[in-house]
Design a protein that fits this description.
By secondary structure, the protein is α+β, with helices and mostly antiparallel strands. It has 2 domains: 95 residues, Phosphorylase Kinase, domain 1 (2-Layer Sandwich); 194 residues, Orthogonal Bundle (Transferase(Phosphotransferase), domain 1), CATH 1.10.510. It has 9 helices and 16 strands. The two termini are 32 Å apart. The relative contact order is 0.13. It comes from Tanacetum coccineum.
Length: 365
């Protein structure tokens, strides 16, 4: 869809400039990988959030068009709502509904603030994210793979309802398409499925993997890549799996949640079970979001036994010299609204010689 078809959503740049007090520092909500986000107030008193794309962003224009085209067509209570956009010279703006409670990571990974997130709120957020992803994958007119599902891309409204945000990395699919490959890996490493990291292969199951990581983080109240157990720091997926195997999954639960009832504890452990199902290494073993949503809403549904999860770059390849070489770069920012930690990996061809005589090609033609 050409961007011209969304002209009805276009805002006058001057109007947005006035609403944000000329993009003043006082109105700045945060700094993301593709620009800054500002709070604005329109003449009618309506509050907005304005994402101003960085002029030096290499893919700024592509991300901008992608996000406008996708989000303008999406309507769901668990997706952030795009109000419009603005173009002025090299300036490109996205105008969203303003969500007062910023992002999930603002609460979840703060030792003090996460106490505000009791299990009832966390479970509501988990189910909201699941419903939003189900809509993207199965219920919207377009099938969409988000590709950057993480805590900082879950915004919270005044009632703490989860709304999935940031579709700059998303991919649209026709209904007869189910998967694709890419040589440019985008997203956040701690949430990436192994088949996506290693081979550039992605499908709805890559979003399911990211959702599983996020679910376990919500239960634990800690990040996947910096999970702290006593004095040691390790991978949350690895720790969760080992505790599941030895029958002590409650060890990963955020201590602030342990004061709940026996029913809540059972529900939390069931959620850990669902999270482990989502991060299984074998793509075919992971459920779809169409299966996950009923699992979360109907406690009588029997859950299959999970198999070993993928511990990020963990794989069944035993010879490290045989790994596909990756060209890796990342950029990160810090804000309350967005902490993009966007990683870009380019799968590039390379030559190998096992015996210094012939060239061994690891990736088939």
């Amino acid at each position: 869809m050409d961007i011209g078809t969304t002209e009805s959503l276009q805002y006058d740049f001057g109007t947005v400039q006035v609403a944000t007090n000329d993009f003043s520092v006082d109105n700045k909500l945060g700094q993301g990988g593709f620009g800054a986000v500002y709070k604005g107030v329109l003449e009618d008193g309506k509050e907005i959030a304005v994402k101003k794309l960085a002029g030096d962003s290499g893919q700024g224009v592509l991300e901008f068009k992608n996000e406008v085209v996708i989000v303008a067509k999406l309507q769901h209570r668990n997706l952030v709502r795009l109000l419009g956009f603005s173009i002025h010279g090299h300036e490109r703006l996205l105008i969203y509904e303003f969500l007062p409670n910023t992002s999930l990571d603002y609460f979840l990974f703060d030792p003090t603030k996460r106490e505000f997130l009791d299990w009832e709120k966390r479970y509501k957020i988990i189910k909201g994210i699941a419903k939003g992803l189900l809509y993207l994958h199965e219920d919207s007119r377009l099938m969409i793979i988000h590709r950057d599902m993480k805590a900082s891309n879950v915004l919270l409204d005044a009632e703490m309802n989860a709304k999935i945000a940031d579709f700059g990395m998303a991919r649209l699919f026709k209904r007869d398409e189910t998967e694709a490959n890419t040589s440019r890996i985008v997203g956040t490493l701690a949430y990436m499925a192994p088949e996506y990291i290693m081979y550039g292969h992605f499908s709805v199951k890559t979003d399911v993997f990211s959702f599983g990581v996020l679910l376990l983080e919500i239960v634990a109240g800690q990040r996947n890549h910096g999970f702290q157990n006593g004095e040691t720091i390790q991978n949350l997926l690895s720790f969760a799996w080992k505790r599941w195997e030895n029958g002590t999954p409650s060890d990963i639960i955020d201590p602030t949640l342990k004061t709940g009832s026996a029913i809540s504890l059972h529900n939390i452990i069931r959620s850990i079970h669902i999270g482990l199902l989502c991060v299984q290494e074998n793509v075919t073993h992971r459920p779809t979001m169409g299966s996950v949503v009923p699992m979360l809403n109907n406690l009588s549904i029997l859950l299959p036994k999970p198999s070993q999860p993928a511990f990020l770059v963990h794989s069944t390849i035993t010879n490290p010299k045989m790994l596909l070489p990756l060209e890796f770069s990342s950029s990160s920012g810090s804000s309350n609204l967005e902490r993009p930690e966007v990683s870009t990996i380019n799968l590039r061809p390379s030559t190998f010689s096992v015996n210094d005589v012939t060239i061994s090609e690891i990736v088939p033609r």
